[in-house]
C-alpha cells in the first residue's frame, strides 16, 4: 500500500467500533501464553451455496476429515525433546477479539505432543497479544522472531497484524499460515498464506453465488465497511466478479461512515429492484441489517452478509427478526452436523474451545503445519520449515472447498470457496451441501 501508516491508523480506528465477545488474556511465557485460559465465544469475522453450483465450481473429492495430527500407533506417550517453537500473533484484547484461533492451534499441537511430537520433539506455541494496535503487532512479531526464534507463525488471527509484519516476515524468512486473514496484505504477501477466504474473495464469491448459483438477475452491493485505504480491495473484488460473469451490478452504494445506519441504503436497494444484495460490515451492521429486514418488509430480497455475520451471538440477538438473512462460511459451517467436523468438534470440546469459525481456522492452520513438519527430512529450522512451506503439496480437506497451498508465489489466497448459511428462528442453517468455488 502507498500509505501503510494511514491504513494502520484507519484499521485501529475500526477496532474501537467492532463489538465482539471478550476473550482470554495473554502473558509472555514461552510455554502456554494465552492458550491455557478458556476463551469465551467471539464473533466471526471474515466470507461463501444454496442450489446446485455450476459444474465448473464443484468441490474436490475429499470425504474424510483431516488426520494429519493423529499420532502413529507406536508413538511415545509424550514428546520430551527440544521444543519446536512456533509463533502466533492474535488480537486477544482491544476492540476486535480473535481468541479461539490460537487456543485451537494449541489443542492440535498438544495432541501431537501427547502422541510423541515430531520425532520426539514437542511443538511449543508461543502466543503474543497485539492488543489490536499497530505498535502491539510490531512488538509481538519482533519478539517472536528475534527473541523466541520461532521457526514459523501458525494460526494467527488479527485485524492488522499482516499489514504491520508482512514485510518484516519476508525480510527474516519467516512463513505464516494465518488462521484468520483480515487486512489486504494477508493475501498479498509472499510469506503469508491464510486458510480462510477473507472479506475480498468473500465479496466475489457471494456475488457469484447470487448471480450464478441462484441465477438472480439484479444483483447489488452495499458497502458498509468504509475505510478509504481498503476501498481498492473491495473494488477489485467486485471487478473480479464482473470479469468472471460478464455482468454488472444493478446498484452499488456505500455508507459515509462506519456508524451509519444501513437501513436507508437497504431501501435504495429495494427501490432499485435488487433481487439479491451482498452487504458487508461487522457485528453491529449485521444486527441492524437483520432488524431492518423485518421492520421494513425486505424479506423478498436475498440479503447476503460476509462471514462476520455468521456468529451465534448475531443469531441469538436477532432471533426470528433476521429470518432469511444469509452469510457465507469460509469453512464447512461450524454449526453443521456433518461428520467431516467430528474430529474438530471433539478436539475443541475436549480442550474447552468454543465452536466458532475462528476455532476452525486455528485447527486447520495447525493441522496443515504438522503435515509440513512431518515431511521435513533432517533438522527442523526456520529455513527447512520455509522450504517445506514453499514445496507443500496441495492439502485437501473437506473442511475447505479448495485445496490449501503455499508455494513460492508473491501472493497467496488459496481458499476460493464458501458455503452459505441462512438465519431461521435464531439459528444458522446450512442452505445446501455444495461449495461455491470461484473459477480460475
Walk me through this protein's architecture.
The chain has 440 residues and is of the alpha/beta class. It contains twelve helices and twelve strands. Strands 5, 6, 7, 8, 9, 10, 11 and 12 form an eight-stranded mixed β-sheet that branches. Strands 1-2 form a two-stranded parallel sheet. Helix 4 links the parallel strand 3 and strand 4 (176-177). Helix 2 runs parallel beside helix 11 (357-374), helix 3 runs parallel beside helix 4 and helix 5 (198-213) packs parallel to helix 6. The longest helix has 18 residues, at 357-374.
Helices, strands, pairings?
Layout: H1 4-15, E1 84-90, H2 100-114, E2 123-129, H3 134-147, E3 153-154, H4 161-172, E4 176-177, H5 198-213, E5 219-223, H6 231-245, E6 251-254, H7 263-271, E7 276-279, H8 283-295, E8 302-305, H9 312-318, E9 326-329, H10 342-351, H11 357-374, H12 382-390, E10 417-424, E11 427-430, E12 436-437
Parallel strand pairs: 1-2, 3-4, 5-6, 5-7, 7-8, 8-9
Antiparallel strand pairs: 9-10, 10-11, 10-12
Helix pairs in contact: 2-11, 3-4, 5-6
- Uncertain residue ranges: 1-72
Tell me the Rg in angstroms. Answer: 21 Å
**Class inferred from helices and paired strands:** alpha/beta
Number of helices: 12
Shape: globular
Helix content: 25-40%
Largest sheet: 8 strands, mixed
Amino acid at each position: 500500500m502507498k500509505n501503510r501508516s494511514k491504513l494502520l491508523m484507519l484499521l485501529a480506528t475500526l477496532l474501537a467500533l467492532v463489538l465482539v465477545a471478550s476473550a482470554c488474556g495473554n502473558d509472555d511465557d514461552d510455554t502456554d501464553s494465552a492458550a491455557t485460559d478458556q476463551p469465551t465465544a467471539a464473533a466471526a469475522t471474515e466470507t461463501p451455496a444454496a442450489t446446485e453450483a455450476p459444474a465448473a465450481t464443484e468441490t474436490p473429492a475429499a470425504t474424510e476429515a483431516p488426520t494429519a495430527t493423529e499420532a502413529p500407533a507406536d508413538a511415545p506417550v509424550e514428546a520430551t525433546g527440544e521444543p519446536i517453537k512456533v509463533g502466533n500473533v492474535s488480537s486477544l484484547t482491544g476492540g476486535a477479539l480473535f481468541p479461539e484461533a490460537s487456543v485451537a492451534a494449541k489443542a492440535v499441537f498438544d495432541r501431537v505432543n501427547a502422541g510423541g511430537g515430531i520425532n520426539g520433539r514437542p511443538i511449543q506455541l508461543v502466543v503474543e497479544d497485539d492488543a489490536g494496535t499497530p505498535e502491539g503487532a510490531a512488538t509481538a512479531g519482533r519478539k517472536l522472531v528475534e527473541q523466541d526464534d520461532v521457526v514459523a507463525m501458525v494460526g494467527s488471527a488479527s485485524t492488522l497484524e499482516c499489514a504491520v509484519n508482512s514485510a518484516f516476515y519476508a525480510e527474516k524468512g519467516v512463513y505464516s499460515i494465518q488462521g484468520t486473514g483480515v487486512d489486504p496484505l494477508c493475501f498479498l504477501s509472499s510469506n503469508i498464506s491464510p486458510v480462510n477466504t477473507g472479506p475480498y474473495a468473500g465479496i466475489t464469491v457471494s456475488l457469484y453465488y447470487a448471480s450464478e448459483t441462484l441465477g438472480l438477475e439484479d444483483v447489488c452491493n452495499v458497502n458498509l465497511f468504509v475505510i478509504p485505504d481498503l476501498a481498492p480491495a473491495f473494488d477489485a473484488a467486485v471487478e473480479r466478479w464482473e470479469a468472471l460473469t460478464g455482468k454488472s451490478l444493478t446498484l452499488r452504494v456505500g455508507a459515509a461512515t462506519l456508524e451509519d445506519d444501513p437501513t436507508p441504503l437497504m431501501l435504495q436497494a429495494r427501490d432499485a429492484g435488487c433481487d439479491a444484495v451482498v452487504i458487508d460490515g461487522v457485528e453491529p451492521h449485521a444486527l441492524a441489517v437483520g432488524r431492518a429486514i423485518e421492520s421494513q418488509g425486505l424479506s423478498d430480497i436475498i440479503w447476503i452478509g460476509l462471514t462476520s455475520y455468521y456468529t451465534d451471538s448475531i443469531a441469538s440477538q436477532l432471533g426470528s427478526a433476521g429470518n432469511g438473512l444469509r452469510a457465507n462460511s469460509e469453512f464447512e459451517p461450524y454449526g453443521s452436523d456433518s461428520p467431516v467436523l467430528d474430529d474438530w468438534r471433539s478436539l475443541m470440546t475436549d480442550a474447552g474451545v468454543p465452536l466458532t469459525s475462528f476455532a476452525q481456522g486455528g485447527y486447520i492452520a495447525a493441522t496443515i503445519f504438522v503435515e509440513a513438519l512431518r515431511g521435513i527430512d533432517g533438522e527442523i529450522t526456520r529455513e527447512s520449515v520455509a522450504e517445506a512451506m514453499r514445496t507443500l503439496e496441495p492439502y485437501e480437506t473437506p473442511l475447505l472447498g479448495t485445496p490449501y497451498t503455499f508455494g513460492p508465489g508473491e501472493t497467496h489466497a488459496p481458499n476460493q470457496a464458501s458455503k452459505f448459511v441462512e438465519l431461521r428462528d435464531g439459528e444458522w442453517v446450512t442452505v445446501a451441501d455444495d461449495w461455491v468455488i470461484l473459477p480460475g
